[in-house]
Amino acid sequence: VLLTAGDGTFLTIRPYPTINGPWRIALVDVNIDTQPDIVVANRDSSNVGVFLNVGSGTFSGQTTYTTGPSSFPDALAVADMNSDSLTDIVVGLQSSGQIGILLNAGSGTFGAITAYPSGISPEGMAVADVNGDSKPDVIASGNNVN
């Protein structure tokens, strides 16, 4: 984490170790305290890590949630996927060609992953309501796919 001085320069670097192979990152409030928390897809460790913001630009240690053995989460998005007003984690599982969802259980903790077939090996992802039904849809892209 590099906090800015507000004049185009940075203050002290604050490193926060992940497990192995952080691939994607998102900033979002996962514990409803109005502070952005860090969500990381740790590709080489096959898990998702969450660092809760504890204020003043500092974060808790990483809490990890498995995405399955050798699943390689390459893509990451965050959105309320079940209409409970809590931000959930959506990951693209490159090795199995699945989209996984970890539902927010409250207080910044997440349940076990539920995976769905995607038809590709997802490497990029976004979430938006693309068909106008007021529900989040997942848009994924993959390498070597037209």
Automatic annotation (TrEMBL):
Highest taxon of the lineage: Eukaryota
Keyword terms, alphabetized: Signal
Pfam families named in the record: FG-GAP_3
InterPro entries, per database record: FG-GAP, Integrin_alpha_N
Entries under PANTHER family matching the protein: SENSOR KINASE-RELATED
Name under which the protein is recorded: VCBS repeat-containing protein
Species, as recorded: Adineta steineri
